[in-house]
Each structure stands twice: as C-alpha cells, then as structure tokens.
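Q: What structure does this chain adopt?
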Amino acid sequence: MASRLLALSRLCKAAWPVRRAALMMALLLLGAGSASAGALRALDDQELAQVSAQDGISFAAHISLNDPTLVGAVSDSRLSLGFNGDGQNRYIVFKNVRGKVDMFAVSLGVQNRSDGGGDYIAIGLPGFVRYTNLGFESLSVQNDPSAPVSGNLGSLNINGTVSLQGQVRLWSH
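A:
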C-alpha cells in the first residue's frame, strides 16, 4: 500500500510541469484569440444589413408562482381583472394562483421570407413543457377585489407534460 502511495505521489509531482505547460498554452491561445478579434465599431445600416447571424437564441425557463414551500410564502394571494360595464365596476378574482412551469427549447430568431419580401421573426414553440400543480383555488366575480371571496365559480389544477412543434411567425407589411 505504501509503495502505491509513493508511486502516486511521484506521478503527481511529475505531472505538475505538464499541467502547468498545458495551462500556459491555453492562456496563450486565449490571448491570441482575443487580440485577433479587433476593436468594436459601429455599423451603419448598409453594413448591418449584410450581417448574417446563426440560429438566434434558445432558452429554458423554470417559473414558480406562489410556492408554499418557500420562506415567507403568502397564503392568501389574489389576481384581479377589472371591467367597467353600465357604469359599474366588476372584478374577476382568482384566489391563490400557484404552480410550477418548466419549459425548454424555446427559440427566437430572424429568418428570410421565401417570397423575398424581407425578414420575419420566428418564435419556436417549446419542445417540452411540464406543469406541476398549476392553477388557482377559486374564481369569483365581485364588486370589490379586496373583499373576502364571496363565491366560488370553480378551481383549476393542472399536472402534466406537453411536447410542441412548430413556429409562430411575425412580420410586417
């Protein structure tokens, strides 16, 4: 056992100059790459029109609404939507909106239109979405949004996954 530890310590001591040389080489290459990049400069509209990007951006999100497991969590929250009709205010009140949403592979990019009419914004739908206890405790219609909930028109609780494909395309005329 002692001979194995001695051999291992000799290997580590011998490997340090190799690791140090590799680190120095990586730093040298990094410095050379940044030196050849050049300074930033402003582009006019003509030059900017010639710039070609790659695939846009993609992102993932984890959204947690009113998680009761968090420190300081609120136990009585409301989301109110107000409407005015016939001179009277009414509010749709969602009590205790909560849940988690996990999604990934949402993309955003600019593409060329096939008819040559310019560009469009392509929003790629998420490839995966998971809902965990997403919903609300009660729904009511009230005259005062801060008054105690007067009735219950239902509740909602969603658990599950969704896989989506495709794009939403936006362009102007």
